[in-house]
Amino acid sequence: MRAVQVTKAGGPDVLEVVDLQDPTPGPGEVLVDVAAAGINYIDTYQREGIYPMETPYVAGLEGSGKVTALGEGVHGVSVGDRIAWAETFGSYAQKIVVPWEKAVPVPDGVDDEQAVGALLQGMTAHFLVNDTYPVQRGDTVLVHAAAGGVGLLLVQLAAAKGARVIATVSTPEKEELARGAGAAEVIRYTEVDDLAAAVRAFTDDEGVAAAFDSVGKTTFDASLASLRRRGMLVLFGAASGPVPPVDPQRLNSAGSVFLTRPKLFDFVITTGELRDRAAGVYAAVADGTLDVRIGHRYPLDQARNAHEDLQARRTTGKLILTP
Ligand code: NDP
Q1: What ipTM, to 2 d.p.?
Q2: Taking the CB of the first residue and of the last residue of the chain, which one, N or C, has fewer CB atoms within 10 A?
Q3: CATH number for the domain formed by residue range(s) 133-261
Q4: Calpha distance 88→73 (Å, rounded)
Q5: Looking at domain 2-120+268-321, what is its CATH homologous superfamily?
Q6: Domain Enoyl reductase (ER): where (predicted)?
Q7: Per-block mean pLDDT, blocks of 10 residues, the chain (323 long)
Q8: Which residues pair with residue 213 across a beta bridge?
Q9: Helix (H, G, I), strand (E, B), or coil: what is residue 111?
Q10: Ligand 1 atom nearest residue 267's Cα
């Protein structure tokens, strides 16, 4: 099979297409023909070594496809079933072996690309607005990088809960997408000198109940300064680079605010939790209340271009690698 392998940490050019032996499923695993592999920002942190990885490895955590063989002791799934996964390395490939406990059934009404577009990023948006900061009707919240994969889903879910969403984006095209997803106000953060002042101006200077910040280094200070008293800064990514250490006293000065740095895998710990959360997101996709925008599709041998585009802020919505 063809796969995208990484043998050393580095830039996009360390993503190499190679021929590998087809994998075989061991006990508790299923073999899958990959229909769509999901590209996520975390793939770039792993490729660069920001999250250290043992090499060589086949890139990509997420995908969807059809089960073609079952390992010993696997029950509750048949050959031919459609599944998706968000926590199994080796997804940038034509075939993959997935531990059955990490697999999620894909319901009718959700296609292979939507299954990927809604899984890692969809469950992330879902836990952020339901569990990290339970968004309330009438809240005003800030969402950075609102036209991105997570961003577009987060705006939709927060708006559906009755929040007023202030979104940030870098271009007019992205502004249109953020508004289409339900953002009430959009700030092109690359064009303002004082981002926090621009956010606060939309709230009569009160500040926002929560700031969902996946950009990190370049937005952290503004996110903190945008909060209302006792608001919450939800730092969940570092697209612009990691945030330097923070003095807790700053949380006091900002108005007794809360700071948290959550990750999805702590919100889908058991198979039950994973499948329940995925089922909730997929139900919203199937009934049309959650729109998954596939921004770009790349063939396997263009994985490098995909990572370059993602890190150069040229993409919107979900990126799919098609094996
Ligand atoms: P996106 O599609 O959101 O792409 C990243 C976006 O970040 C860009 O399009 C860009 O939007 C914005 N950005 C701002 N500054 C920079 C910069 N200097 N370099 C690159 N991009 C920048 O990616 P994903 O949806 O895959 O992921 C979004 C974020 O969420 C990532 O930080 C990721 O790590 C995080 N994440 C965290 C999870 C968790 O569990 N904690 C789970 C999933 C994702 P614009 O041009 O509008 O500025």
Answers
A1: 0.99
A2: N
A3: 3.40.50.720
A4: 19
A5: Medium-chain alcohol dehydrogenases, catalytic domain (3.90.180.10)
A6: 10-321
A7: 98 98 98 98 96 96 98 96 97 98 97 98 98 98 98 98 98 98 98 98 98 98 98 98 97 98 98 98 96 98 98 98 96
A8: 235
A9: coil
A10: 40
